[in-house]
Design goal:
By secondary structure, the chain is an all-beta fold. It has strands spanning 8-14, 18-19, 22-23, 34-42, 58-62, 66-71, 73-79, 83-87. It has no helices and 8 strands.
């Protein structure tokens, strides 16, 4: 298992889709900008930042600000600051 260091979260990508009445599928021009994922693990808080999400949360993050790593499955390691929304 991958355990992110302080200030980072481990996310597994999800396909954009509709949730209830809210359409979270990005427009054609937006597909490369933000991505939706499921938080698998949250690193420890830093001195200045508290982890804004918890395991199991669905989040939107900036696509080009993550590091992809493959250990059986593909995951992304993302800094707290690059998480931009929580999907409920």
């Amino acid at each position: 298992m991958i355990k992110p260091l302080a200030g980072y979260v481990l996310v597994q990508d999800e396909e954009p889709r509709k949730i209830g009445a809210m359409d979270i599928t990005p427009d054609e021009g937006e597909k490369d900008k933000n991505v939706i994922g499921l938080v698998v693990e949250c690193g420890k808080n830093t001195d200045s930042k508290k982890c804004p999400v918890k395991k199991g949360d669905k989040v939107v993050y900036k696509k080009y600000t993550s590091n992809e790593v493959e250990v059986g499955e593909v995951y992304r390691i993302i800094e707290f600051d690059n998480l931009i929304a929580l999907i409920k």
